[in-house]
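hey so u asked for the seq, here:
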Amino acid sequence: METIIKPNTITEKVLKLIESNFSTLIEGSEKDNAIKAFVSQGVPSRKHEEYKYVNVDQILKDDFVLATQKNISKEQIEHLKILKGAFIAVIVNGVFNEELSQLNNLPKGLIISSISSAAENNKLIFEKHYSRYAEINTDSFVALNTSLAKSGVFINVEKSVIVETPIHIIHVSSANENIIINPRNLIVVDENAQAKIIESYETIDSSSKIFNNALTEIVVCENSIVDHYKIQDENEFGYLLNTTQVVQQKKSLFSTHTFTLSGSLVRNNLNIVLDGEHIETHLNGLYLTNGNQVVDTHTVVDHRKPNCNSNELYKGIIEGKSSATFNGKIFVRKDAQKTNAFQSNKNILLSDDGTINTKPQLEIYADDVKCSHGTSTGKLDADKIFYLRARGLSEASAKKLLMHAFASEVVNTIKIEALREYVEEKITKRFE
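ran it, structure tokens below
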């Protein structure tokens, strides 16, 4: 494979990585197109409007190798299992691990397998949906994932099947040298079906940088209901760039909840296309930053058809010298009359050195809609702290109580009780 590129040290470095591992990657014509798209766009710098607050060059300037499978024992991941009795799919360094997964007694109509297995055994539905929604020509990291993906998890909930048991995808990263991981997931929930899906990102037994470039495509078919949760809790070695591409068909309901609790740098791209009438969409997120952590959240809600509702709420607590960014876009296309779209971003700054960049946006081409967006940033209310201290609480306890109250609006959107308790416990530890 020969590719001519413009001089760019980091882009060249990544391209050489692709070329040296070409024969081991997922096959398909989209791989060649993705490589060309990556080369055309290159690794984005701060001059790129969508990445102006994320210094990707600083991550990729070091030497990286493509992640290889690592031996992880069941005991090492036992503490990562959030829910008892859940169906568990484990991905280690970007590759689906059947031995560590718990997929016994799957109900009829639920398929959970590796991407490579789905390409062979579920060829019809796989080829219909795989790499059809995340656009390689608009984001170089989508192109990079499509180029470098080795495996991931495939989930299909068949027509009219209601899966009561949550499905938990555990992304485990581990390395003793700098690695790039490219997990690729495809989730298809057929018409009239229902599912609850949790994705968690964890780093264990690591002493080197881990750049996790994850991509999940979710198809929510007609009349189906999907609850989706992301728990991001990587340590100081974790650099996570997570893209979730969702397509909803008519009369579907999709709710997604993102909790970013740790990680040196976390970038979340959440793109949702409402491609039918009478669709309902909910986006909720909470990010907690400290030290020198960077959290960058970009959401796009694309209303293409009439009579749809979307509601978006993101909150952040920023301390230390950390920084957070929220960039939320809502598009209302010309034919999307009777749209209701709401967006809110609220932040608390706990230090003078912390930074928040927030930019909610509306782009409306229809004239019969109800849309609003808003943002607020400030410190903890001094009067409320005084009130609580006057009733016997210490200053630290008063601040923790106010932060819990601030976060609870997002935490309470979690519909799975055990998961909500888990997140609350994690947040409490962070506040301490």
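Confidence is low (pLDDT under 50) at residues 1-7. The CA atoms of residues 191 and 322 lie 43 Å apart.
lmk if thats what u needed
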